[in-house]
Amino acid sequence: MPDTNASIETKTPNKEGIFPAGQMILFILITALFFLWAIPNNLNDVLIRQFMKSFEISRFQAGLVQSAFYIGYFLFAMPAALLMRRLGYKFGFIIGLLLYGIGTILFWPAALVGQYWFFLMALFVIASGLSFLETASNPFIAQMGSPETSAQRLNFSQAFNPLGSIVGVFIGKIYIFSGIELQSGQIASMQAAGTYPAYLRFETLRVVKPYLFLAAVVLVWAFFILLKKFPAIQSEHEDSGDHGHFRDLLKHRHFLLAVLAQFMYVGAQVGTWSYLIQYVQDNTHLPEKPAANYLIVSLVAFGIGRFVSTALMRVVRPNRLMGAYAVINVLLVTVGVLHPGWIGVWAMVLTSFFMSLMFPTIFALGLKGLGPNTKIGGSLIVMAIVGGAALTPLMGLINDRTHSIALAYLVPLAGYVSVAAYAFLGTTRGLAVEAAPSDAQVAL
Question: How many Cβ atoms from other residues are within 10 Å of residue 289's Cβ?
């Protein structure tokens, strides 16, 4: 389709407003969810370090925190989509927040029992709720307004996600990290004195209060959304027409490639942040609390990148901007792998600015032209978040085998290569669909 693609290249970016007219309160309520689900996502980065200490486990075993979490996303995204197709987006938001709240409450009995598997189960429940929230929120925000500005609107709402990430890491640094890092001689002395089990229990119990507070906030927000009346969204009215079919999605090459790109991207993002504290400690020998500051700086860069990218998309096509960002990240991670130390640390921190637009942009471009399959398609892209479950333990395994956390960052490097390939080669069909007025009316 050379003629179609040529016309796309010359099309100027749309200048329409990105906010939904007459629905700002609801838009704010749902946008706040992007903030709320980011908190446990990035508390995981703290938990990995904390559980290595309190349960005396390897980096590979600690990486199972992300596996339990993102498997919950994977298993519940499709049921969430099917239930919302029958009962609507509001149902998805309420169920998601209830599961989120229940999972955070489970941290209390998990700490009392003192078993690692119990915490993994609680994280699975939290992620199951977040799967409902993400499956609902991303397409809902994308559809609250003009289809031409869906990527910008979704990037704006997603810009509040890193703010929640920063809050999550701050909570972990202040309320979970004790700052006590025992050397082998100190551990031996405490074991001889019989005080070491009490120390491990003290470290385990530190996770309880932050998660109980989070549970209270989440359940209150569920009540606010329950009271709010929701507008009609076109793709919700599938009972009156075409329900869509899974096999129809196979016809959309840009969608299938979006699922793959999202899998690789999420693996890259989660892996980068999960082991950043370890990368800093291994290569600069900083204690855990100062090392956590670099994760916070990384998340600040991520948040700034979201807002900057939303503005740039008014003059640069989303796929081109994402492709350029992905290439830059390939170069930065290469520096981090080859030059571990302060240069590598700052290179890794800077990747967060350029990864900032990738998730919402892949999501929005992948949904172009899916019509009645929008919810199902959105759920499959959310299921691709399982990349975080697959690639994060792989990084831990590489570290355990090579004793180099820097080499483990070859995994995120592969993720950014995949995103660059999707941006430049895999989005053309979706953009062609967007350019056709008849299809755009059905899409987002």
Answer: 14
> Could you tell me which residues come within 8 angstroms of residue 22 by beta carbon, excluding any fewer than 6 positions away?
none
Q: Which two tokens stand for residue 278?
A: 């370890």
For the residues 341-363, what does the mean pLDDT come to? 93
Alpha-carbon span 281 to 62, nearest angstrom: 16
Q: Spell 198-216 as b/e; 16+ CB within 10 A means b.
A: ebbeebbebbbebbeebbe
C-beta separation of 155 from 100 below 8 A: no
Dist. CA 347–CA 342, nearest whole Å = 9
d(CA 267, CA 390): 7
Spans of all domains in the chain? 23-229+244-440
Cα of 332 vs its chain's centroid, Å: 21
User: Angle 24-54/288-312 helices, nearest 10 degrees?
Assistant: 150
Whose tokens are 């998340």? That residue is: 299
Return the top range by mean pLDDT from 54-58, 178-182, 349-353.
349-353
**For the chain, the helix, strand and coil percentages under 3-state DSSP, each to the nearest 5:** 80, 0, 20
User: Judging by beta carbons within 10 Å of its beta carbon (0-12, 13-18, 19+), is residue 366 exposed, middle or buried?
Assistant: buried
Q: Is the pLDDT of residue 232 over 50?
A: yes
- Tell me: pLDDT of 15 over 60: no
What is the fold of 23-229+244-440? Growth Hormone; Chain: A; (1.20.1250)
pTM above 0.70? yes
Rounded to whole angstroms, how far apart are CA atoms 325 and 201? 44
What is the average pLDDT across 122-146?
Answer: 86
Query: Beta-carbon neighbour count of residue 13 at 10 Å?
Result: 15
What's the CA gap between 77 and 74, in Å, rounded? Answer: 6
Cα atoms found within 13 Å of the Cα of residue 355, Cβ hemisphere only: 36
268 pLDDT tier (thresholds 50, 70, 90): very high
AA letter at 167 = V
Which among 394, 405, 414, 389 has a CA at the least distance from the CA of 326?
414
For residue 220, pLDDT beyond 80: yes
